[in-house]
Amino acid sequence: MVTGAQGMLGRAMAAEAGAREWAVVRLGRTDLDITDLTAVRSALREHRPDAVVNCAAYTDVDGAETARERAFAVNGLGPRNLALACRETGVDLLHISTDYIFDGRKDGPYGVYDDPCPVNVYGASKLWGERAVTSLTARFYIVRVSWLFAPWGKNFVATMLRLGRERESLRVVDDQYGCPTYAPDLARAIADLVESRCYGVYHVTNQGATTWYGFARAIMKQAGLPARVEPCTSAEFPRPARRPANSVLDPFPLRETVGYLPPPWEDALERCLREMKKGDIL
Fold this sequence. Notes:
The protein has nine helices and twelve strands. It has helices spanning 8-19, 37-47, 68-89, 121-136, 156-166, 183-196, 212-223, 254-258, 265-278; strands at 2-3, 26-27, 51-54, 92-98, 140-145, 148-149, 169-173, 177-178, 181-182, 200-203, 210-211, 228-232. Helix 1 packs across helix 6 (183-196), helix 2 (37-47) packs parallel to helix 3 and helix 5 packs across helix 7.
């Protein structure tokens, strides 16, 4: 059962499960409100899944600063409800979390057991959800991801492509480091984790790290757009929510568990742009 099935990762997860010929229950926001415990319990009893992959989330990082209650309801209370219902029905739960639970001050990639210290409301709400899951059920996977993109939905790649067509030049921050992650690659790893039955906390991203500026330059180059990309600092591009300067994630022990790491992000970007071109999105 995939919650948040209409979102960027939910679509990829449902497609991956379908490709494996798994019976998939796709529940979007209008099908299941995960903040409603009664509704969650009813869905688990009705569909009786072997596993739940929770892709439902409040993902507006800046909006969370003023919509704190909504962010904590979806990102904290929702996972708690799923964990309770999964424990009651003996179902595995895989919950998607984020690199933004870290403060970005570490010199080097963050490991799965590094101490979280979120610097914005979104990160705090996702950490609340993690702790609810780990405290309420033993049969869980926490999968932290970062800088998600796909051939569909609102994401950095789509935004850069639009701006690259509209403008001669654009400025992008060059002092925030992370790991761009392609939703279909992430979905494959999630499915393999579910099959592994090796419960625990995992970091799943495409290999390699860059800045938003570096990512934007690669998008323009691979898409063949002439727009000039110029670097700027986070201070020059203020946002309502603070971002961690470093949210690079160390994948250990993902390879040791599923036998591989997702491909480099540059390769994933190439495949994403190819899919967008096939769908007349590019």
